[in-house]
């Protein structure tokens, strides 16, 4: 949460405090928490919101249901699940049917008779084949295990995106609440200035103070009115940021209101004490980014085993069945009167040597070639094949070795990324605790300062009304009080958010 406080000076003396509620994300958002994606409103058409005030829990739930980044992560999970399904299906044998039809013109070799011919031939080839990997260095099994780990890691990424979005919504929600507080505070200053000007005019008419005192009061009023405008602008920006995170259309929600929760002051609680190491140990078992990092370490290990599987021989069992048809395939046929030929032979009767010759009629048929029928050809040309293929890698340009080395390096990188994720989580917890503790102490000090400056400002007002204090000096006391109040508000909301972050790391809801 960043509140930029600019002191307007006159003659080297602080006269006014310009309160500008800047973006809270830089100070309130936990580090290294970042939005899982750009705000959903920047990626899709915003949707209209339901009526009624918005509490923190409702805002978080609505953002989780409508954020584009979360939904994209969910689609990634579905995509990885399909990859896993495909890797499991790779254990099954493959089976395919093929069919071709071709026309050959001019001189060609008959695919069935293997004779040269010069004619137009139509041919069909049909085949079916199946293949089963019997052994492949356990690569199929390791692929399944690796893809299953990738699915689990992507599921953890979804939860990480949801957590980041929840933290950003909580930050934007508290930013909007603080902006409203700053608007009310600055409006109170304006009202107080107006009352002071009315009293100053009466004192001026009575001759108790010079005219310069009235001018100083009017200058202070103008400064505080500018502060109100700046605070209202920052409140509008804070409201817009929250609406964009919720993917709500600002034009369709002109009456968007926040349900301000009951936020106790930091001094109403005991001094914050926390064992950050114990909190880290518990958070490391719950936070999805740690789970995702560990799963990717295991996945990288499977990738190494997968690459090493290329060293092993590969044994494949294959089978096929095939047949074909050619329009040039001819078969001889005989019979019928159209091809019959009568021939008479005169032979000697063996029982009567030297006797007369006896005529013998013989009918022969002229051979005739006809195209063989389609289904007859498919039946006669049918062939089957069973084949075992053994592939033993010996030397392939060191491709296998270099691939294994790359996977080993990648595994080391993933291991370091997992360690970095744990380090980042530890640092985020330590930073959140340090900020929360500092904010609680700052709030206590600011509260004491506000009490002291309130008394000082009252005394100064009495002296000013009696003409014992100049307008410049009186405005200094008011601005000091305004500055202390702004510091008090800033410390309060910083402490509230950091405490919520620590509770979130402890497994509790942000809305609690």
From TrEMBL:
Coiled coil: 411-449
SUPFAM superfamilies: Outer membrane efflux proteins (OEP)
Superkingdom in the source lineage: Bacteria
GO molecular function: efflux transmembrane transporter activity; porin activity
GO cellular component labels: cell outer membrane; efflux pump complex
Main localization (coarse): membrane
Record keywords, A-Z: Cell outer membrane, Coiled coil, Membrane, Signal, Transmembrane, Transmembrane beta strand, Transport
Subcellular location: Cell outer membrane
Leader peptide range in chain numbering: 1-26
Alphabetized Gene3D superfamilies for the sequence: Outer membrane efflux proteins (OEP) (1.20.1600.10)
PANTHER family in alphabetical order: OUTER MEMBRANE PROTEIN TOLC
Similarity field: Belongs to the outer membrane factor (OMF) (TC 1.B.17) family.
The protein, known as: Transporter
């Amino acid at each position: 949460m960043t509140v930029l406080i600019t002191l307007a000076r006159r003659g080297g003396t602080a006269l006014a405090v310009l309160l500008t509620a800047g973006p809270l994300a830089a100070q309130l958002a936990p580090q290294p928490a970042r939005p899982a994606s750009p705000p959903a409103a920047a990626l899709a058409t915003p949707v209209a919101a339901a009526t009624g005030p918005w509490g923190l829990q409702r805002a978080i739930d609505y953002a989780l249901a409508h954020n584009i980044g979360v939904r994209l992560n969910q689609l990634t999970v579905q995509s990885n699940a399909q990859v896993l399904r495909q890797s499991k299906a790779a254990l099954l044998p493959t089976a395919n049917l093929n069919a071709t039809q071709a026309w050959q013109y001019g001189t060609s070799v008959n695919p069935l008779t293997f004779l040269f011919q010069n004619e137009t031939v139509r041919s069909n080839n049909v085949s079916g084949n199946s293949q089963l990997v019997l052994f492949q260095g356990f690569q199929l099994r390791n692929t399944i295990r690796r893809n299953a780990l990738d699915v689990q890691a992507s599921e953890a990424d979804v939860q990480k995106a949801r957590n980041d979005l929840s933290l950003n919504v909580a930050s934007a929600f508290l930013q909007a609440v603080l902006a409203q507080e700053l608007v009310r505070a600055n409006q109170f200053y304006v009202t107080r200035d107006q009352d002071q000007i009315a009293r100053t005019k009466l004192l001026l008419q009575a001759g108790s103070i010079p005219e310069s005192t009235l001018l100083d009061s009017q200058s202070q009023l103008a400064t505080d009115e500018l502060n109100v405008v700046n605070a209202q602008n920052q409140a509008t920006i804070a409201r817009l940021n929250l609406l964009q995170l919720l993917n709500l259309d600002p034009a369709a929600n002109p009456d968007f209101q926040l349900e301000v929760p009951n936020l106790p002051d930091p001094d109403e609680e005991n001094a914050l004490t926390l064992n950050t190491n114990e909190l880290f140990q518990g958070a490391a078992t719950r936070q999805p980014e740690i789970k995702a990092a560990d799963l990717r370490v295991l996945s990288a290990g499977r990738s190494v085993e997968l690459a090493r599987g290329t060293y092993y021989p590969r044994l494949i069992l294959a089978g096929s069945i095939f047949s074909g048809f050619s329009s040039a395939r001819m078969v001889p046929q005989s019979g019928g009167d159209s091809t019959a030929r009568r021939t008479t032979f005169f032979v000697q009767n063996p029982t009567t040597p030297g006797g007369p010759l006896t005529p013998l009629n013989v009918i022969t048929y002229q051979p005739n070639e006809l195209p063989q029928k389609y289904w007859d050809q498919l039946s006669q040309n049918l062939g089957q094949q069973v084949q075992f293929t053994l592939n033993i890698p010996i030397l392939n340009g060191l491709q296998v070795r270099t691939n294994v080395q790359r996977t080993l390096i990648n595994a080391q990188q993933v291991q370091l990324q997992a360690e970095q994720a744990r380090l980042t989580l530890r640092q985020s917890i330590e930073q959140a605790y340090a900020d929360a503790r500092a904010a609680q102490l700052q709030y206590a000090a600011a509260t004491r300062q506000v009490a002291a400056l309130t008394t000082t400002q009252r005394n100064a007002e009495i002296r000013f009304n009696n003409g014992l204090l100049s307008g410049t000096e009186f405005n200094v006391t008011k601005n000091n009080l305004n500055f202390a109040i702004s510091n008090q508000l800033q410390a309060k909301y910083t402490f509230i958010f950091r405490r919520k972050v620590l509770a979130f790391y402890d497994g509790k809801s942000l809305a609690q």
